[in-house]
What we know:
The protein has helices at residues 17-24, 63-66, 94-99; strands at residues 2-7, 32-35, 52-55, 72-77, 80-85, 107-109, 117-121, 124-128, 143-150, 153-160. It is mainly beta.
Amino acid sequence: MTKIGVISDTHLRMPNEQMFRLAERQFKDVSMVLHAGDLVSIRVLDAFIDKKVVAVCGNMCEMDSTQVLNPKEVITVEGVRIGLIHGYGSRTGLEDRIFKEFDDVEAIVYGHTHSPANHLKQGVLMFNPGAFTSYSMGAETGTVGVLTVDEKGISGEILPL
């Protein structure tokens, strides 16, 4: 079994105290972290220095991120293919647009909407951890997620901060 921490829309130039607490608490037992974009600066990933990290750039990323990170990635964990993308454009129809970006994946992890999602679309897990920062979309708190990959496949859980 592999646990994967999932975060998106941090909108920070460097990790803050809340990110370090996240790494020590909710992400303590994960073996890797996926960041679904809008880091702003690549330095944000320093909060997860002891983990393997896969990240993509988003529409709010600065040049230090966009020069290093791709707009989408596909990783394989225990034979399960996971697509990672930030997302783009209107919230309306976003899942349909990003669904077309990937072939032959069991899950698509995305951000951009700042709203958590954890459901199947045509047999593919669509997983959005929501926004780490709580200032957006009227949320009282930020959210992150954890994916679990095991012999049954992949499942997700949304965690409030």
